[in-house]
Amino acid sequence: MLIGVQPSIKQLPVLLMFKPRQYYAPQWSAGLSIVPRSRLALAVTPTPLYRWRAPVIDDSVELWIKRDDLTGSTLSGNKVRKLEFLLYEALKQGSDTIITCGGLQSNHARATAVAARQLGMHSHIFLGTNDPDTDPGWNGNLMLDRLAGAAIHLIPPDIYEDRERVMNDLAADLVRAGKKPYVIPEGGSNALGSWGYIDAWREIIENDAGEIPDFDDIVFACGSGGTPAGLALAVRMSGKQTRVHAVNVSDHPDTFHMRINRILDDLGTEERSEKLVDLVDGYSGRGYALSRPEELRLLRDVAGTTGVILDPVYTIKAFYGLCEEFRKNRDRFAGRRILFLHTGGLFGVYAKLNELVETVDDYQ
To answer: d(Cα 340, Cα 227) in Å, to the nearest integer?
Structure first.
């Protein structure tokens, strides 16, 4: 089902702040087969990194947080780091239309639709849903998708499984219509997109303040594989000993290892995901984008005690997994300093309004 009609726009000149900028890859990344030389400055970086006294985690460790939810407003979250490289490539190829995909409340699809329109391009986004014949409305990220003029294609799970073919078929149709499409995979998770988190790791270890310690563990949500691929490879190449823990919010760990290894292959390295990434399984709960009361209660408690709002699809499941593993399997995080990466997703909270009200109606 296609919903929404794109307004007619002219191909706009790229605004000054979005002009391509030369990119200098870290020296320790030399030897990779894909090394970008330019990118767009879409994200507000560096993002804050500081000590975080969140509930449940006791003072036996130093818990820190990296606020990649603050990479922007409508461009907030981890996906925009990847889009800096991917959308530069699209512009370099003269593209006028971006095609991508995600879940119904996809942060990646929202960031892509907004960034594409800011760059003067159209966007088509395929969103997976169990009920493609019903208009899902304007809640959460969907409101921003619509406001940005994205053409939204609703597809059922069985078709979403074949999303790469579906997107490529649309691209072929657009080419025949005289357009110049550029396809971005789910989550921006390919070899070029993974550079967003190769560079993010450099940002962490080469901070200007000089007061940030080496971290023993880094923990974050994993939904499509690009973030752990970039981070884990960067940790290894930079010579750091930080252990990388990715809490999967859907699918099976083997699926993510396969995706990460595909990215590593395309980057020209023989490193393997199974050696680089600890995939923390068992915290997808009721399923992708479905919440349990205990997750929403933790979201409420974190916001109420620290002022940091985690999102229901990704970061609360990652933090819930960290808390549970810290309680049940402390040896998994054997170090003194743990860094939690907040990958954004604020707008998805609005899609959980009714469920959240049930958890906060007695909370003052």
So the answer is: 13
Tell me the per-residue pLDDT of 158-196, one tens digit each, with 9 for 90 and over. Answer: 999 999 999 999 999 999 999 999 999 999 999 999 999
Q: Which CATH number fits domain 40-78+190-360: 1.20.1250.20, 2.60.40.10, 3.40.50.720, 3.40.50.1100?
A: 3.40.50.1100
How far is it, in rounded angstroms, from Cα 344 to Cα 221?
10
Q: Sign of the CA dihedral 242, 247, 253, 255?
A: negative
Residue 208 predicted with pLDDT over 70: no
Q: Which two tokens stand for residue 129?
A: 């849903």
Long-range contacts of 169-175 (CB under 8 A, 24+ apart): 170/99, 170/124, 171/99, 174/97, 174/99
Q: Do domains 40-78+190-360 and 79-187 have the same CATH topology?
A: yes
CATH class of 79-187: alpha beta
Selecting among 106, 123, 224, 273, the annotated active-site residue is 106
* Catalytic-residue membership of 106: yes
pTM score above 0.90: yes
